[in-house]
Specification:
4-stranded antiparallel sheet; 2 helices
Length: about 150
């Protein structure tokens, strides 16, 4: 038993209906004032080229204001021997709390002053912003607590 839908004529009608739905253009949500490629024509004269040129506004303001933002200071810790170390930055954040091993070096960055505690000061060398820093060491004491850098 064959219905009209199963005949070749019925099938071609279904196909054409389906292709009509697929081929139907989608509605555009945003209209554009830019010409479509079919509407574009090449400019022949320099005047026409200048008239068709797109002008991009400058990204630079008329007068630039330079704000000076203080950079974070850098503390370099070199371990010649094992030593426990704790470092906090000028805002009280703990940057480091661990045992450094001989041969290691650690680079820390943050707002000054750095609050430093060392368990074995003779085994540690410091650099502050690229310059060697002489730690205050009490005679006979290996443990030190001091600050490096100005607030």
């Amino acid at each position: 038993y064959m219905s009209d839908a199963d005949t070749s004529e019925g099938m071609s009608q279904k196909k054409s209906q389906a292709s009509e739905v697929v081929a139907e253009p989608l509605p555009q949500a945003v209209s554009s004032s830019l010409p479509t490629p079919a509407e574009e024509t090449p400019a022949n004269t320099p005047e026409e080229q200048a008239a068709n040129a797109i002008t991009v506004p400058s990204q630079e303001p008329a007068s630039a204001v330079l704000l000076e933002v203080p950079a974070d200071d850098i503390l370099l810790i070199r371990f010649d021997a094992d030593s426990w170390v704790e470092v906090r930055d000028g805002e009280g954040r703990r940057l480091l709390s661990r045992t450094g091993r001989a041969g290691q070096q650690m680079r820390l960055q943050g707002p000054p002053p750095f609050d430093i505690r060392l368990g074995y000061a003779p085994g540690v060398r410091l650099e502050y912003n690229g310059s060697p820093f002489a730690m205050p060491v009490e005679k006979g004491s290996r443990v030190v607590h001091f600050k490096v850098g100005a607030p």
